[in-house]
Amino acid sequence: MADTKPSLPEGYVVPKVWEFKEPKEGEGSKFSGTNRPYAGAWGEDKALPKGNHAIQLYSMGTPNGVKVTILLEELVELQPGFEYDAWLVMINGAQFSSGFQAVNPNSKIPAMMDYTDPEKPTRVFESCAIMMYLAEKYDTDANFLPKEYPARAECISWVMWQMAGAPFIGGGFGHFYSYAPINVEYAIDRYTMETKRLLDVLDKHLGAGGPYVCGAQYTIADMAIWPWCGNLVLGKLYSAAEFLDAEKYTHVMAWAKRIAERPAVVRGRMVNRPFGPTSEQLHNRHARGDFETQTQDKLEAAVATAA
User: Fold this and answer.
1) Does this model's pTM top 0.70?
2) Is 214 strand, coil or helix?
3) What digits encode the pLDDT tens for the residues 27-44?
4) Domains of the chain and any CATH numbers
């Protein structure tokens, strides 16, 4: 928690030209070892795995990853013939492998390949780009990304709102409140203020319309925003609900609980999830039945029985 870390030492002088310094053992945040000021593959020279379905997702169950797996599970419910493979890519350096970098030159999860045409496969990266691609290609009834204006414009606007705000919540508030090795009051105050402002924007909007972000219709805007704002107010992200006084955002809270009850959302949170209760972790997903047989608690029990 933020209040258990030391405060910022005084005396840092900003240099004329910044230089990268390798973090020393035990210093920095939990992700310091994977931070570099340059792009490209510097991890393993290793190809990505490939399953039997046209859609191959490479991801991890962070909020950005969950956006896509929620949509994929919603599509599974809509279309009996739709399936996909989802492979866990740990963001401890695996995202810098040669195989992953070939799918996403930005080396961030999630990334996706569509092998519908094996001769001309399509790569898609950035979470909401993947969502728009999937919704346009597979949601033929246009339930999740409306085809007609102004509903389409409203949906895309809120998706972009989420993309613009996520760095303030994750890389800003989440980092300095939860991951930074020291407390920086200025940084925590700045990003807390912006996070609460974003929650207030959403709260006022939902209060004026609802029950979903785009009114009566559940769309990819809800799926994109919920893993960040919904999990945040429900206390499932950074354990920060009390700190943010989340209960005051009554419309966001009601919306968050409503979305959380959807079966596809419950499953989507489990896909590529390597943390939390083992019964909620499905590291790799290849078929609908995997949720019954391949979660970590069942796999570990099987190993223990065999031993």
Assistant:
1) yes
2) strand
3) 655 665 676 666 776 677
4) 55-138 (3.40.30.10)
